[in-house]
Amino acid sequence: MNRLRLTRRGRTEKEQSSRRRRNRSRGAGLVEFALISPIFFAIIFGGIEMTLMFQSNLAIQDVSRSAARVASIARDDANADQLILQEIDARSGTVNGDIAMVIIYAADTLDSPVPSQCFNASGIAQTSPGNCNAYNAEWVDVAAGSAPVVTPGTGITDAQRKQWQNIGIYIEYDYTFVTGFIDTTTLSATTVEVIELDL
Question: Which residues form the domain of 169?
């Protein structure tokens, strides 16, 4: 006859061995979770970051389109640059990051890129006579009226704008990641609009 052997605590050996197996499997589950969780959380936070970056990129494209509409209407107004920069300032609240440069340029066609003369060798925006007016970090001060627009004669003049058919707006900004795992990245948006004619 089979006798059940009891341990000190009144459990059978069979119960005790099954309990050991459960404890081992619990320990294995914790080890597996510890190995997999960093990958899982990286995927989750990466997805969140990409979603927020995509949203900011759409927002900056909307800001660029809105500024180009203002540029199209302002045309050869003496305060055209300031009006454009004010529109950018008013609409850039949903962008997660800082606008680094704004370039207002003459566009030959609706898909014309920014003229190469509007950037120096380091890739910093620079004003180019007859081609573009460029604003770097000071663009916010110009929008607020506490700094002057591009010095007349160094960039594009009102008379030159009168001759244009299309005007382009280029905005570059430094996107700041929310989680902080990555510092910043640079994104940009360009919009070209047909200049509205005086009737």
Answer: 39-194
pLDDT value at 14 more than 80: no
Read off the tokens for 31: 């080890």
Length of the chain: 199
Is 17 inside a domain boundary? no
76 φ, ψ to 5°?
-105, 25
Going by C-beta distance under 8 Å and a sequence separation of 6 or more, which residues neighbour residue 68? 167, 168, 169, 191, 192, 193
pTM of the complete model: 0.77
Q: How many domains does the chain have?
A: 1
Element of type H or E holding 110: none
Residue 142 CB partners (closer than 8 Å, separation 6+):
81, 82, 85, 135, 148, 149
| Model pLDDT for residues 110-126, shown as the tens digit of each residue | 888 999 999 999 989 99
In a domain, 85, yes or no: yes
Report d(CA 40, CA 51) in Å as an integer.
17
Residue 126 lies in a domain: yes
